[in-house]
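Researcher: I'm preparing a figure for a lab meeting and need a structural model of a single chain. I don't have an experimental structure, so a prediction will have to do for now. The sequence is pasted below. Please return the structure as tokens so I can convert it later.
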Amino acid sequence: MKTFLALLVASIASLASIAAPPPIRIWEGTPVRAKSVTLVPYLPSNASALPSVTVSEGSPEGSGGGSSAIIVCPGGSYCWHDYESEGTLVAEWLQSQGIAAFVLKYRVQGIGPYIFHTRLISRGHRHPDAISDLQRAIQLVRENAADFGINPHRVGAMGFSAGGHLVMSAASYAATDFLAPLGIEHSVSLRPDFVAPIYPVVTMHKPYVHKRSRRALLGEYRKRSQVMRDSMSLEMHIPADCPPVFLLNCVDDPIVKYQNSELLDSALTAAHIPHLYTQYRVGGHGFGGNPSKFSSETKHWLATFMEWLKNTLP
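Model: Understood. Here is the structure written out token by token.
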């Protein structure tokens, strides 16, 4: 019996390690001091093991086949992370569909600084920290494509709410290397091959701005800067080479006004960027990949995304 129990415990531990692999500290070994930033891989069953992953800069980009990869950015107003509904549950679903998913815990303002306004006297976390984290994640996923069993030319990003703003920022500002000022060298593209902003924050301007996200992203002082508001209002910054976009939200969203997505849809259309905009009447905000939060409409969104992805990637 003792032997059986020992084997059972070992088996459960093994399964747990597969389902929830250890996080990769993406800035380890670099000059950037950001231990809280992690990337957790959820790889399809045919992917390679993780121990060979390197977090040093300058590795060559891989090539060849492999699965698609999606970096998942949970929302939380750039203040915190809705890590389960908009992170792990989404990653597990993508993994079940044969897609390599990576949940990124990027730098955010934090609950304490949000409540006590501590960034009035210290810098804290603010733009461009989050987009630097996402570009670093894209770099590492591409550089370690062979170890992850993925195609480095099919690396996208999916984000929710403020995370949606983050992934769309990566598409809008792909030509800006936020890693170079940090002393990070690389030989891979930082442009995602596709992005999926889900009920995203888009604009920093009235009447549709989500004020909490704006303050958390820009900082206590810079939130009043017209230049900063303009620069991070993504409907104003759609590049000609913007990657394909999967955009989705609900009219009854009580958190981020649905017009944010309409502004982005209009901007993408005007710039002739391939995209799909799905607008549901009922579904609210924050459902992510959590079936218990789905409406009769939003329960279809993951299947709609998969169909779009199959039709979009070469």
